[in-house]
Specification:
- By secondary structure, the chain is of the alpha+beta class.
- It is built from 22 helices and 23 strands.
- Strands 1, 3, 15, 16, 17, 20 and 21 form a seven-stranded antiparallel beta sheet that branches. Strands 5, 6, 7, 8, 9 and 10 form a six-stranded antiparallel beta sheet that branches. A six-stranded mixed beta sheet has the order 12-13-14-18-19-22, sandwiched between helices.
- Helix 19 packs antiparallel against helix 22 and helix 20 crosses helix 21.
């Protein structure tokens, strides 16, 4: 893989996750040593803006000019980023802002950032007004028997024309909030307190927005107007991204999130980390204050934005941080002194288990080797510096496959259902563990130049029966691997009706390195920019279309609108010429039809799948509704179905980001069907269980 690594050394290539990096930095507060902070500077912000403007015009795949069209897209995106549900701004605010709809591009060219500040200031004004309004509405009585609805589809709404219309919209929202708490069994007085606390906390956290965050919002509104994956990362977001890729850090070893009421809550304690070894900090604990060393002042962190809390808890291995903690989110505050340490993010790395199912002709059970792969990770900085030992997906999976062989595994199942992507290089080298040699992915740039990236290493780490599991959440690098395996007829693809459909390649351009040609340049953030589109060995792009599995399993995630095709300004699907490659003997068309027939019969007869199919049908009926009834009886009648979908999407996102513990291939009816299909697959292969080119 010299060619791929050569590019990496020059400029990291990424098949980036479908989950936004801003979301990752906000929700997954891995605690590590940050880069040296840079004081806010208007001059620096202008320099960064000019550099981003130059890169976006000269390096983006589309070569689209920074013009009025981009300006109109950007202003819409920027405003919606503050007020996506049209609850804060008035129509008069929007009318005023939209006078800039054809000149925002000129502002960017001249690095004028006043518009961003003006919008933010107006938003804060409206937010303060709405929080005051919430207090008034919470003091009122609400009739839950009257038939009225709240519109939930922002596209069906216009901005309120005046304060009276805004008040009516918020009256319905508060009524919906109260209904939700009431349905959960919450006492009304406590529900009102929590709702008021939620909006007060929201106001305080927005008030802590700094210049880096505002610049990130503004520049990303511009860059994502070229395509949804081209974004500007602030210094903090960039550092969080690097942590996710290298899978190690220094800190206490905990994931944090902000509750609706503004408390910093421990969502997960990382096994083997400093907090885990200390033993006192637990999931659901609130952190209400933080102190440095043995005697440092305890700083109140209630209502503090998450990144700032993380900055206080971060630090070098061997140093002490003191946490004022409320166990389980209640009770008196206890202070835990924890010594920071280096932490390996093992839960974000490849994991494995061997399970036994079925029966061979000799009476023994079949051994199935399961590999759970959350992302395609690689310590890019260590690789760029040509260090001999650096963390990578391929190295970890190779070790797992060696272990599988020693345990006489009959088939390998690679689970990519929560894998949103990562390193393109790792997608290529990992695919190479399952094929002999040949093209894995083709790329094309703006000038129609094409290049094939091949597995150059002879032989396979695993040449036996192979199954790949995919879902709507499998994206980018996952789609490269799944597409290549399918084109080579090397293994069976099982999953949702399609994968995510992200078929573009991003490079990470470090702004500090480009502006200052010195060792250890300042962290000024980075531009993650789409420079190429990738294609399967057969010439098909995965863009918008994804990888269609050989066998589809019914799943609620099929119905959740999370695909690339739903994103604004996504690059279009196309094809290029087929590359030359050898096919294998592991998937035959007639075998596929029999496998599908057997699976469909089992699903039809399964009581669990009958319930799942009924749940999917209910969700399909509800998902296109544009409003929710505020009549208590009607609200409760539809709530359970809607919550199924919301909780499933939330669960998938949390698992993808590593915020919650996830069992490897848990024992459930979906996974049992995967194993049943794999058993049928082994029987279809009969004595032909070794991959050979044909």
């Amino acid at each position: 893989m010299r060619s791929a690594f050569g590019i990496l050394n020059r400029r990291p290539w990424l098949g980036c996750s479908v989950v936004s990096l801003t979301l990752v930095s906000a929700c997954i507060a891995w605690l590590q040593l940050p880069a040296a902070p840079i004081a806010p500077s208007p001059a620096r912000d202008r320099q960064v803006t000019l550099r981003v403007r130059g890169l976006i015009e000269s390096e983006h795949l589309s070569r689209h000019a920074l013009d009025d069209e981009i300006s109109m897209r950007a202003i819409k995106s920027f405003l919606e980023g503050f007020d996506p549900r049209k609850m804060y701004f008035l129509q008069s605010d929007i009318d005023e802002f939209m006078k800039k709809d054809r000149s925002l591009d000129d502002d960017v060219r001249q690095a004028k950032l006043g518009f961003a500040r003006d919008v933010f200031d107006r938003y804060m004004q409206r937010l303060n007004e709405r929080v005051t309004l919430v207090e008034e509405l919470l003091a009122e009585q609400h009739d839950f028997k009257v038939d009225e609805e709240i519109i939930t589809d922002p596209e069906a709404l216009i901005y309120p024309s005046d304060a009276a219309e805004a008040r009516e919209r918020w009256r319905k929202l508060i009524k919906l909030n109260l209904l939700t708490f009431k349905a959960d069994g919450e006492e009304e007085a406590e529900a009102r307190r929590k709702i008021g606390r939620r909006y007060q906390s929201l106001k305080k956290r927005w008030g802590q927005t700094d210049s880096d965050e505002l610049l990130e919002r503004f520049l990303t509104a511009v860059t994502s107007s070229y395509d949804p994956h081209t974004t500007y990362m602030s210094p903090t977001t960039l550092e969080n991204f690097r942590i996710l890729m290298r899978l190690n850090l220094e800190g206490i070893g905990a994931a944090l999130q902000i509750s609706d009421e503004g408390y910093t809550v421990v969502s997960k304690v990382i096994p083997g980390g400093a907090a885990d070894k200390d033993g006192r900090l637990k999931p659901d604990d609130r952190i209400v204050s933080v102190g440095q060393g043995d005697t440092g002042e305890m700083v109140d962190v209630v209502d503090m934005k998450l990144n700032d809390v993380v900055q206080l808890i971060r630090g070098k291995a061997g140093t002490i941080v003191r946490l004022g903690t409320q166990s389980g989110g209640a009770g008196e505050t206890s202070v835990y002194d924890i010594t920071r340490a280096k932490i390996e993010l093992a839960d974000s790395a490849a994991k494995s288990r061997v399970i036994q199912r079925g029966q061979k002709p000799d009476g023994e059970a079949y051994n199935f080797g399961i590999i759970d792969l959350p992302s395609f990770y690689m310590d890019m900085e260590a690789a760029r510096d040509e260090q001999n030992e650096f963390r990578s997906t391929t190295r970890d999976v190779r070790r797992i496959l060696s272990d599988f062989r020693s345990k006489n595994v009959d088939a390998v199942v690679l689970d990519l259902r929560q894998n949103g992507g990562g390193s393109l290089t790792e997608a290529i080298t990992l695919t190479g563990l399952f094929i002999d040699q040949g093209p894995v992915v083709q790329v094309k740039d703006w000038a129609n130049r094409k290049q094939s990236f091949n597995d150059l290493e002879p032989g396979m780490a695993w040449d036996g029966p192979f199954v790949v599991l995919t879902s709507k959440f499998s994206a980018s690098a996952s789609e490269i691997l799944a597409g290549a395996i399918q084109d080579y007829h090397r293994g069976l693809i099982i999953g949702d009706e399609s994968t995510h459909g992200k078929g573009t390649v991003q490079s990470l351009l470090d702004i500090g390195s480009l502006m200052f040609r010195i060792p250890n340049p300042p962290n000024l953030g980075a531009l993650k920019i789409t420079q190429q589109q990738f294609y399967r060995p057969n010439g098909d792009s995965t863009q918008k279309r994804g990888v269609l599995p050989d066998i589809v399993l019914p799943s609620l995630t099929n119905e959740i609108g999370m695909g690339e095709a739903e994103l604004d300004y996504a690059v279009d699907f196309d094809r290029i010429e087929t590359a030359k490659f050898n096919s294998y003997n592991m998937v035959a068309a007639n075998s596929l039809q029999r496998l599908r027939t057997h699976s469909e019969k089992r699903i039809t007869e399964s009581e669990e799948y009958k319930k799942e199919l009924a749940r999917i049908e209910r969700y399909q009926r509800l998902k296109d509704e544009k409003s929710i009834s505020l009549n208590e009886e009607k609200y409760l009648a539809r709530r359970d179905t809607e919550r199924d979908a919301e909780e499933e999407q939330e669960k998938q996102l949390e698992e993808q980001q590593g915020a919650v513990e996830r069992e490897i291939f848990e024992d459930n009816f979906q996974n049992n069907e995967v194993i049943d299909i794999t058993l049928d697959y082994l029987k279809e292969l009969a004595n032909n269980k070794v991959a050979r080119a044909r």
